[in-house]
Design brief:
Radius of gyration: 15 Å
Low-confidence stretches: 179-183
CATH architecture: 3-Layer(aba) Sandwich
Structural class: alpha+beta
CATH class: Alpha Beta
Mean pLDDT: 93
Distance between the termini: 33 Å
Strand content: 25-35%
CATH topology: Aminopeptidase
Order of helices and strands: EHHHEEEHEHEEEE
Largest sheet: 7 strands, mixed
Number of domains: 1
Oligomer: single chain
Length: 186
């Protein structure tokens, strides 16, 4: 069957939270120590506002939950429902970048195109609403994917709200809209 996508619903929340916890725990091992992985779960996670906004996707491979992720027309750059610094203010597509948010791949499906599929879904949806730039906060494990997709580093920070400092990278890119079979920067 291959990869398929659909918009997430509130019925998916339990399974998505399990996938996210597993992805953080397993895919971060090559980049972070145990304390940083624990800290990551405190600063990252599912933001159900994305589900309510209809901008969060579920990716399945042959019927199995392979990944999730989405984009936002709101000001929050990263963090889950439990994060204290969420900002639900709406962005202006004429001046603000859309935010790519909460991308996670089940470890059993890593490097099978799940992340690229999510990025494509996000980019097309944001472009349809008039956004010309995307921005995200990358984990160390996600940075290579985002670079290969055209994101460039804006700045590096460490977020220690979860206890141990976790290195993350703010990245951005111009939206590329597929028109007539080819990419065109907007």
């Amino acid at each position: 069957m291959g990869l398929s996508s659909r918009v997430a619903t509130r019925d998916d929340v339990g399974a998505l939270r399990e996938l996210i916890d597993l992805a953080i725990a397993e895919l971060s091992k090559a980049f972070l120590d145990d304390d940083q992985i624990r800290s990551s779960t405190a600063i990252m996670g599912l933001d159900t506002q994305l589900i309510d906004d209809g901008t969060y996707f579920v990716i399945e491979l042959d019927g199995a939950l392979a990944g999730c992720g989405g984009w936002s027309r709101r000001a929050t750059l990263y963090g889950g429902d439990h994060s204290t610094q969420r900002d639900i203010a709406l962005l202006d597509p004429a001046t603000d970048p859309a935010k790519v948010r909460a991308m996670y791949t089940h470890p059993d499906f890593a490097r099978r195109g799940v992340g690229r599929m999510i990025l494509g879904l996000c980019e097309r949806a944001a472009a349809a609403e008039g956004y010309t730039r995307l921005e995200l906060m990358a984990t160390m494990s996600g940075e290579p994917l985002y670079r290969s997709y055209g994101f460039e580093e804006i700045n590096r920070i460490e977020d220690a709200r979860g206890g141990a400092p976790v290195p993350i990278v703010r990245m951005g890119k111009k939206v590329r809209i597929v028109q007539g079979g080819g990419d065109q920067a907007s």
